[in-house]
Specification:
2 copies of one chain form a homodimer.
Chain A: H1 3-17, E1 22-25, H2 28-35, E2 50-54, E3 60-63, H3 68-74, E4 79-82, H4 87-98, E5 102-106, H5 112-125, E6 128-132, H6 135-141, H7 145-166, H8 175-188, E7 193-194, E8 199-202, E9 223-228, E10 230-232, E11 235-236, E12 239-244, H9 250-269, H10 276-289, E13 301-303, E14 310-314, E15 327-330, E16 333-336, E17 340-343, E18 346-350, E19 355-357
Parallel strand pairs in A: 1-5, 3-4, 5-6
Antiparallel strand pairs in A: 1-2, 2-3, 7-10, 8-9, 9-12, 10-11, 13-14, 15-18, 16-17, 18-19
Chain lengths: 367, 367
């Protein structure tokens, strides 16, 4: 039995309960979660394969010839079928033999243009298509202990990499050089790679929460947002520190303290049974109370797993209750156009009584 | 006038000719091409903004607060509007004022789930949605001289990086270390970053055309496929060399010669007025003639520009005539399960009489 067997069994039961005969899985991390096939897609237009999982019967992994060997090695629970002439001729043949009446598909990871072709084929073959947006994602929300171990390993390595790179930073190094140093250190430390392009935003650039590193040289005294993540066996870490090379001025110190207090309020509020919305509010209230509410214009956090951004979200949109074993970021920030920004981000796993913070690093947190 | 003004004017004329009142642009490279806004998206579920371009009137860039400053700096032809509560409430307001009757959208870069919301809004407001799959892509097929310069610059830098990294390779270095060395050299050389994750596939791993670099150490004498690309101001290069550290054996040499002959046949056939299918056939015939037809199971090449994979494709699917100013790869390969693979890839710009090969590097080509 492989680690995917139990996941498949659960999914099949859920399909059966909903009266579905099969599911077409197109989302790459769902594909990996259910099959073990580690190929990544270069964008949604370049899929390296899809799963066709009957509610009863052997699951199928459909891919093109380039991935045959890898798929066979990595996905032993699946029969690997190759489509030499694209997915649709193969799907047509499979619909003829499997004869699904009701087929689930991933509405949030299927292009309108591809859906058009699928709908035509389904109509030809008398298959009813049923749209889902988080059938597999729901299953991924609560992490198993094996998944938690990989995530914790990723967080630990992330901190090690950050500490090692941080020691080498001096005023005059550019944002880009800093980002490369971090990613280079990641790789030399055994990470599979970054979970997203490293953000290094110094001085005024820090006012853009998703700034791309530039050739700008970091000056002593200015706040520098470093937002980085790495992957181990597909599982992601995500961590932000705001550092100052040299002495921070009073404004920077004040904002660091404020953002840290907001983060602590969020961490304090985080526990099973409360909503993502509630946790967001508890942190946001601290920043709003200091008059900076308009300058914290993103949600407090998001889930992390095989995707660096996944459910559950800690935002006003999420009224659902958090459950033990969910993993989220807590990342309040304040962004002042023309001046710069401060953001602090930890990761935590939700527990029945509260949460367990996965981070140990306290660089510039205890100000 | 910025470089986007002329592109917008052309698009508007094309919208008017088709009786369209506006276009919603969701594809990130189309967004960059038309606006200058360089933000990249972390997957299709995390858009950093969309364009709403009326056939007449000021074009709009809709983004969230995190990108406001960057969008305003980079897209001066556009009015930047921020959606604090997601795209759809803002679109609803804009439909009220712009009152488009027929709205083009990008069917190949809009999720089925998002289309569902758009269709509902459109029905509410009496807007007819018209699906397109390559309206902007068609405009991007033929490169301007400014675009060609950037692409050539990317190819030149790619070769410099390859040559520099290649000199440092010795038997015993792993595939991963080789890939990192290449990407590190890229960055130190001023590239914006890789245009796709570098492929290094040694020995049997080379039988997987899209292999991910592993910890496997490269042995003397075995073929190593190195497929790499970088970006300069968004424009991509893409180049593959198959190298041998030490002396290649006769089988490797024979396959290198065969693949090189197929490449030369493709380059010979490439010119304005012939189809992508024809060029693919001319190269494929060489490999099939030697009895390896079943082991070349991908298309001969693809267009390159702001996307590392874009139109036109050199494959049996493409019966359209190639035009001067198109940029394509020519990349035949032979992949033998259990043994390994050989692939050679150059980039070329189509000219009226033939093509101009953008590559100078001949490492292991003239065997």
């Amino acid at each position: 039995m492989t680690f995917t067997t139990e996941r498949l069994t659960r999914l099949r039961r859920r399909l059966q309960r909903r009266g579905l005969d099969a599911m077409l899985v197109t989302q790459p991390e769902n594909r990996r979660y259910l099959s073990g096939f580690t190929a990544t897609d270069h964008g949604i237009n370049e899929s390296s394969g899809v799963l066709l999982i009957p509610a009863a019967g052997r699951p199928l992994l459909l891919t093109d010839g380039r991935y045959r060997l890898q798929a066979e090695e990595e996905a032993p629970d699946f029969e690997v079928l190759v489509y030499p002439r694209g997915l649709f001729p193969l799907l047509r043949r499979l619909f003829n033999t499997l004869k699904p009446r009701r087929l689930a598909f991933e509405s949030h990871y299927l292009l309108h243009s591809v859906y058009g072709r699928l709908a035509k084929l389904a109509a030809d073959k008398g298959v009813e298509l049923v749209a889902f947006t988080e059938l597999v994602e729901e299953q991924r929300l609560v992490k198993s202990s094996a998944e938690l171990e990989l995530i914790e390993e990723a967080v630990r390595l992330n901190e090690k990499v950050f500490a090692q790179a941080y020691r080498q930073l001096r005023p005059g190094i550019s944002e880009q050089e800093t980002a490369w140093l971090i990613e280079d250190t990641m790789r030399r430390s055994g990470a599979q790679g970054p979970s997203f392009p490293t953000i290094v935003a110094a001085g005024p650039n820090g006012a853009k929460p998703h700034a791309v590193p530039t050739a700008r040289k970091i000056k002593a005294g200015e706040p520098v947002i470093i937002d980085m993540g790495l992957q181990i066996e597909g599982y992601c870490s995500d961590m932000t520190r705001t550092v100052v090379l040299g002495e921070p001025d009073d404004k920077t110190l004040g904002l660091l303290r404020l953002v840290r207090r907001a983060q602590l309020a969020g961490q304090e509020a985080l526990r099973a049974g409360v909503s993502g919305r509630h946790v967001d509010q508890m942190a946001r209230r601290v920043i709003a109370g200091a008059g900076y509410g308009d300058y914290f214009d993103h949600s407090l956090g998001h889930g992390v797993g095989l995707n660096v951004h996944e459910g559950p979200t800690l935002s006003y949109r999420n009224r659902k209750k958090l459950r033990p074993g969910m993993v989220v970021t807590i990342e309040p920030g304040v962004y002042l156009p023309g001046w710069g920004g401060v953001r602090l981000e930890n990761m935590a796993v939700v527990t029945p009584e509260g949460c367990r913070i996965l981070n140990q690093d306290t660089t510039f947190l205890n100000v």
